[in-house]
Design a protein that fits this description.
The complex is a heterodimer of chains A (300) and B (302). By secondary structure, chain A is an all-alpha fold. Chain A has helices at 2-34, 38-54, 57-60, 64-98, 103-117, 120-139, 158-185, 188-195, 200-238, 243-253, 259-290, 292-295. In chain B, strand 1 (46-48) and strand 2 (51-53) form a beta hairpin. Chain B contains 13 helices and two strands, in the order ααββααααααααααα. Classes of the chains: A mainly alpha (300), B mainly alpha (302).
Chain lengths: 300, 302
């Protein structure tokens, strides 16, 4: 009897829940269609995407020159920043990993952590002030252009941008290479190598560095992402006409822009995403090349 | 673990909490700490150290951190700006966590094509800088839409690491023999999640959640620096901000206080430095708390 009553109650509750669900769905759809035309907006977005897909190449052609120009400017500073980060970060990280308890190792680690924590806009402002107030009076060279201008691209102006953009990738690479050395330094195969009479230099060169290389390659896509993430604010601050600044401008203009303006926003954003995806793919391929176990799918 | 290791585990947590204490007090009881009304405008001219100044006034005994362009006390505005700024950061980071963890669980439970689709969406989301995503959403819809829009724009980017974290933890757990044993004696999914997934996720998730809060706070400051902040009352024009005009700030908020201060760094350095310093101070405190929590949880798990 009780079981039957429970079954009836379950049936009733289920029925009520179903009716409530249908009612709320229909009500919400009607409300959103009339009061706030969400469905119409969704349809317009879908129709807009279709129009973009079917648009002739001539409509999209105006987007290509500004995209290529901005992309080239940004890649100049990003490649410079990553190069600088690699050049300083890997040796510094190896040193910190080899001497974890030494004052030098601790200082490098601390600087690495500070670099990861430091907000880009604060660092960028500090670099800006340093170049305008100290470097300009000392050298007479205008490394920073405060006003916006189309003729703003000058190789000398890359320096403050590269320094600012390199900070977070540098911190990331220091941490990655220090961790790699610390992990490998006390591994069993290193003890075997030591017992066979290999000196510290040979140990580092032959055994530690291949492991560090693997970790550094794996750390490069996140380091690139750090640089790309800082790009809009750094380009805005230093008036550098790259993808970051162009994107900010195009987004602000796109509120009233036509198909070309909107396409420019999409193309600029896509260029950043494609750069990251390509770098991640390349890094993966390089990792498999360095470590054949990865290519063979062996669990290390 | 030794007593020294225990102390090392607690030290960053205690330091972080000490750093965050004034910020939390400012957010909870701003009236208790504020020297003056944040909306009170100063006189048209004021004599400071024998020199007559028009607003913005430099730091002095009357205005410890200087004043803004309307002659309002920066310190009072920073104190009153703590609550809206931190609430916004809290809401957005909660949304990031919710979206990331829910999608991670969905990817694991659904598996197959849907699981791969979620992983691909996470990859795509990670490829676009959160700053650009939030800027795009807020500028396109209009900052006047208020806090919900900011929470959505800041929360719908940056969730990908959480999805990856959940997926990796579940995949690691799935290989454990004790989980197989629990399944064999009839443990339900809910019970598995409660007794195994949550304890396995907590040591990495709790410090990461604190870091997420710091990341969102930084994003709010960067958006403000680009002229996108809570309570914005005019359409955004980047040319104005590049030229160095500070917009009219209706309500105190840390991001908004940074708007248009690009050029002010040379003339009135207190305008960007005061809000930038409080953002940096808070991020430092949160990072110390995150590191302390990480060490504490690692210590507890031993």
């Amino acid at each position: 009897m009780r079981q039957r009553a429970a079954a009836i109650a379950r049936l009733l509750l289920g029925g009520i829940a179903r009716v409530l669900l249908i009612a709320s769905l229909v009500g919400a759809c009607s409300f959103l269609t009339i009061y706030r035309p969400v469905l119409r907006l969704l349809w317009e977005a879908f129709a807009g995407a279709l129009a973009l897909a079917g648009a002739p190449a001539t409509t999209l052609a105006p987007v290509v020159p500004p995209l290529l120009r901005a992309y080239g400017h940004s890649m100049l500073v990003i490649v410079g920043a990553l190069g600088l980060a690699l050049l300083i970060g890997v040796p510094a990280g190896v040193l910190a990993g080899l001497r974890p308890d030494h004052i030098l190792g601790s200082t490098i680690r601390l600087l690495g952590s500070a670099g990861t924590l430091m907000p880009t806009f604060i660092l960028a402002m500090a670099v800006l002030v340093f170049f305008v107030m100290v470097v300009l009076p000392a050298t007479g060279i205008r490394f920073v252009l405060l006003a916006t201008s189309e003729s703003a691209v000058d190789p000398r102006r890359m320096l403050p941008l590269v320094l600012t953009l390199a900070a977070r990738p540098l911190a990331h690479l220091i941490a990655a290479s220090a961790d790699a050395v610390a992990d490998v330094w006390h591994a069993p195969f290193m003890h075997v190598a030591r017992s066979r009479g290999l000196g510290p230099a040979a140990l580092i060169w032959r055994h530690a560095l291949p492991h560090v290389a693997l970790r550094v390659v794996a750390a490069l896509p996140p380091a690139l992402l750090f640089a790309i993430g800082s790009l809009p604010i750094v380009e805005f601050l230093f008036s550098w006409p790259g993808v970051g600044l162009e994107l900010l401008r195009s987004i602000v203009d796109a509120r009233t822009a036509d198909l070309t303006g909107t396409t420019l926003v999409a193309a600029l954003a896509t260029s950043l995403a494609v750069t990251y995806a390509a770098a991640a793919g390349l890094a993966g391929a390089l990792q498999r090349r360095i470590d054949p176990r990865l290519a063979a799918g062996v669990d290390r | 673990m030794t007593r020294a290791a225990h102390r090392r585990a607690w030290l960053p947590l205690a330091c972080g909490m000490a750093v965050l204490l004034p910020v939390v007090l400012a957010a909870l009881w701003p009236g208790m700490l504020t020297p003056t009304d944040p909306e009170q405008r100063g006189p048209a001219m004021r004599q400071i150290d024998g020199v007559w100044w028009a607003p913005p006034y430099p730091p002095s005994t009357a205005y410890w951190l200087g004043s803004d362009l309307a002659g309002r006390d920066q310190l009072s505005r920073l104190i009153h700006g703590a609550a809206p700024t931190l609430s916004l950061a809290l809401g957005a980071s909660a949304l990031r966590l919710g979206v990331g963890i829910a999608l991670g669980i969905a990817a694991v439970l659904l598996g197959g094509t849907l699981g791969h689709a979620i992983a691909a969406a996470a990859e795509a989301s990670a490829a676009l800088p959160p700053l650009l995503f939030a800027f795009l959403i807020i500028v396109t819809i209009g900052a006047h839409a208020g806090p919900p829009l900011f929470v959505i724009a800041l929360g719908l980017s940056g969730w990908a690491p959480w999805t990856h974290l959940v997926v990796s933890v579940v995949q690691r757990l799935a290989r454990e023999p004790y989980l197989e044993a629990a399944r064999a004696i009839g443990a339900t999914r809910w019970s598995l999640a409660r007794h195994y997934l949550v304890p396995a996720l907590a040591p990495s998730a709790i410090p990461a959640a604190a870091q997420e809060f710091a990341a969102v706070l930084l994003l709010i400051a960067e958006l403000g620096f680009l002229g996108v902040f809570l309570g914005i009352d005019a359409p955004l024009r980047l040319s104005d901000l590049l030229a160095g005009d500070q917009p009219n700030l209706p309500a105190p908020e840390w991001g908004g206080m940074l708007a248009g201060t690009r050029m002010a760094i040379f003339r009135q350095s207190w305008l960007p430095l005061a809000p930038a310093a409080i953002v940096l101070w808070t991020i430092l405190g949160i990072s110390l708390v995150a590191e302390g929590l990480r060490r504490r949880l690692a210590w507890a798990s031993h």
